[in-house]
Structure formats: C-alpha cells, structure tokens
Specification:
Order of helices and strands: HEHHEHHHEHHHHHEHHEEEEHHHHEEH
Strand content: under 5%
Bound molecules: alpha-D-glucopyranose
Helix content: 40-55%
Strand order of the largest sheet: 3-4-7-8
Number of strands: 10
C-alpha cells in the first residue's frame, strides 16, 4: 500500500480485507500473527465491526467465540488462549485461570478484563441485518451481555458510585498510558524486583519477552517496568483473580477514564438492545447505569478543564492528559459545552492537533514519544471512537477530517499497530487486525 501513487479507498479496503482473512483462525481473528496469536476482548469487538462489511456470519462468530471465555460469574476475560492452533501453552500456564472457581473448564483464559466494547460490536452487527434477524441476534447475546455488565458493578464498583475500578493497566487497553506508569512508580516494589534492579539484571527479562522480540524495544515498556507489570499480575494470581480479595489489600486501583467512557456508551447500547427485544433490565443494573453517567462528571477537573482517571484509594485525580481525555466525546453523556472544550484540544497543534492525529499522549506532554506504544503514537481504534463521538455531538467537519486522515495514514503506511503522529511512520506489529477492520468500517462510513 505504500507505492508513490495514492491508493484508492477500494484498494485500501481490499488490502485490509486480505489481512483480516490472513488473521482469521477459523474461530476468531488474532490481533497479529506471532506477537498476538490469542483472542483479545476488545480486539475481537473491533474485528467484528470490520467483518460485518464482509461476512455477517464471521462477525457473529467472532463475538460468539469471545463468549466461550466468559466466566460463570459474568466476567469477560481480556484474553482467551488458543493452544490448539499455536504451541503457546506457556502463556496460559502463567495465568492459571482455573485457580478461580468461576473460570470455564474447557478453555484457558486470563483473569482480568478489558474495555467493555462488546455492546458496541453487537449493535454494529445488528445495524447490518434485517429487523427480524436483529431481534434474534440480540436475544442470543443479551443474557451474556447483561451478566457482564452486572459483573462489572458487582465486583468492580465497591463504593457503588458507578465508576468501575481496574486492577491492572492491561485492563485499560491502553497498557502503558502515563497515569498508569506514574501509579506504578509510586508503588512499593517487590523485594525480588529491587534485587534485580540493584544487580542490574533487568536485561535478563528481554529473553522472556515476546513483544521486544518482534518490535523494537524502544517502542515498548522498559524491562524494569515490564517486570513490575508482571509482578502485579502475579499478585492478582496469588489471590486467585478474586476481585474482593485483591481489593482488600491493594493500593494499585484506578477508576480509569477510558474504560468508564466506553462503559457509558456500552450501557446506552445495552438499553437499546433491551428495548428492541422488549426486555426489562434488572432494576439494580438500571440504577448503576444512571450512576455511571452522573459520576463520570466527578472525573472532571475544573482547573485543567479536562477529565482525568482517578486513584481509587486516595480519590486524587491522575493529572496526566492522554487519549482518554477525548473519550468523553465517545461516552456521549457530557454536556455540549464540555464536548466543545475537548474539541478545542483536538484542534490545538501543541496538544492533539498533530499532522497525523490523534496522538495517544498530547504532543506537549513530558511523556510524549512518537513511537512508544500508548505514549504518543496514533491508534486507529481510538480515532474510530473519537470520530463516532464527534459525529454524535454534531462536529461533522472534524469527524470527516479525522476519518479521511485516518484512512490516508493507513493507505500510505500499511495496517500497522500504531503510527507516529508527527510523520505517520508505522510502528508496532504489522498486519494488525483492528487497524484493518476499522479502516474498512471508516471507508464504509462515507
Ligand atoms: C496491546 C494493546 C491492547 C491490545 C493487545 C492485543 O497489548 O495495548 O490494547 O488489546 O495489544 O492487540
């Protein structure tokens, strides 16, 4: 796709389709060959949004295969391990999901979740089928969807304020976003990591890391931070992935802005789905849905005129702007005045208005690094969410510009995992599924 002549939309679409076909395992779409061979929760939702333009059965299968991994308490794990197609039993052995009695018997999963994009994907598929088919599609998925949303509130909203608490940065989907990194560095380190640090042995971690085997190390977490992420995972595993037990002792808990914005939108979709199939959502869930919308406003910082994530224990906001800053547009519940303030940031060249927008961290942040993942690069999934939000707030010109810029960036550089917001240069994994799927969707939005 990177010839000197500009590729047409249909050429770009065809190239994207080839990638989806290549990454299709027969059951789900892997995010990228080699680096991400398993099934990821929000990746599959984005993949389904692309597949719906190519094959509805495949889009539906993508979603159904996600539900294989659902725990009996409703939790949707962020990863389902595919040990059939790949010899990666090592990965599932690390997670040991079966330590938790609610984990499924027949499939190995992780023990944490990811942004609740499921309702969005279900509705996007629903929009492409007849009314009759839509009803039966919604009826099919509804029980699992309700159970997942109930799990979020039952297990991850201990103050019953409607804001979901995350226990690992991987749950945010924006793995090494600055607020999480700062939280990480404020934590006491386990003794064994202190020892590794003192003996300068952290380089040994690179022998065990898959990401830096396939992607230049400068684009990912450094070895010490990667070890700290691993240590948090081990701590959660020691508590058998039991949220209540984990929360009793941990200080590493965040009311994550991006996650809660996605939840606000997902709740709206859930209400719509229930309406179409004439179901009444449980009363407690309806109350929680209302509370999430209301209390998202508590994440607003009047001084900075922005929303931020918040540390759950101290209730202090984590004042590092990131791409999450713009996601209240996608949530759709904030006032038009506040939405306009966010759009200002999108226009500002020193903040989010770079040549290849939208950077995952604003250009004027001390964390900004054009190629380090979630600390600067532009991602197609967050662009997709922002475009969707801009449209619903009536910022049609901005939405259309960003749609075209995104398609062009992918057309010029290929379906990479992320791109430099300064010159569009591609980085991360190549042939990345959500880049392909969402580009197909953006092309079809014309
Ligand atoms: C990276 C991303 C995460 C994604 C996963 C698989 O870890 O940060 O959001 O789900 O890759 O693509």
């Amino acid at each position: 796709m990177s010839n000197s002549t500009k590729p047409t939309d249909s050429q770009i679409s065809k190239a994207c389709q080839d990638i989806l076909n290549k990454n299709w395992t027969g059951q789900y779409t892997m995010p990228a060959d080699k680096l991400y061979p398993h099934q990821w929760l929000w990746d599959s939702c984005f993949a389904a949004i692309g597949w719906r333009h190519i094959s509805i059965p495949r889009a539906q299968q993508e979603i159904r295969s996600l539900l294989r991994g659902q725990w009996s308490n409703g939790m949707l794990p962020h990863m389902i391990f595919d040990n059939k197609h790949h010899n990666f039993t090592k990965d599932s052995n690390i997670w040991q999901s079966k330590r938790n009695p609610y984990a499924p018997d027949d499939v190995a999963t992780s023990g944490i979740t990811q942004p609740p994009m499921l309702a969005e994907a279900v509705v996007q598929i629903g929009q492409k089928i007849s009314q009759l088919e839509r009803r039966s599609w919604y009826q099919d998925i509804y029980p699992a969807l309700v159970k997942y949303h109930q799990w979020l509130y039952q297990e991850r909203d201990p103050h019953q304020c409607g804001l979901i608490v995350l226990l690992h940065p991987w749950e945010s989907g924006l793995d090494n976003s600055p607020p999480w990194i700062e939280q990480l560095h404020n934590q006491a380190k386990p003794w064994w990591i202190k020892l590794i640090e003192r003996l300068k042995l952290d380089y040994l971690a690179s022998f065990f890391r898959r990401d830096t085997h396939y992607v230049p190390p400068g684009q990912r977490l450094n070895n010490l931070d990667a070890l700290l992420y691993h240590a948090i995972m081990l701590r959660l595993r020691r508590k058998n992935w039991d949220s209540a037990q984990i929360m009793q002792r941990s200080h590493f808990m965040v009311e994550d802005l991006a996650f809660n914005c996605v939840l606000v939108r997902a709740n709206q979709h859930l209400l719509d789905i229930a309406k179409v199939i004439a179901h009444q959502l449980p009363e407690d869930l309806l109350e929680n849905i209302q509370r999430t919308e209301e209390n998202l406003e508590k994440l607003w910082d009047a001084y900075y005129s922005q929303y931020f994530s918040r540390n759950f224990i101290s209730q202090k906001s984590l004042k590092q702007p990131t791409i999450a800053t713009l996601l209240p547009l996608y949530a759709g519940s904030v006032t038009p005045e506040r939405a306009s303030e966010l759009v200002e940031l999108l226009h500002n060249k020193q903040v989010f208005g770079t040549k290849y927008p939208v950077p995952s961290v604003p250009k004027n942040s001390k964390y900004f690094n054009q190629h380090r993942y979630w600390q600067g690069p532009t991602w197609v999934n967050t662009n997709w969410l922002i475009i969707d939000g801009l449209k619903r707030y009536g910022f049609n010109k901005e939405a259309e510009n960003l749609r075209q810029q995104t398609i062009q960036m992918v057309g010029e550089n290929g379906c990479f995992e992320y791109f430099s917001p300064l010159d569009g240069s591609p980085a991360g994994a190549e042939n990345f599924s959500w880049t392909a799927a969402l580009t197909i969707d953006l092309i079809n939005q014309k």
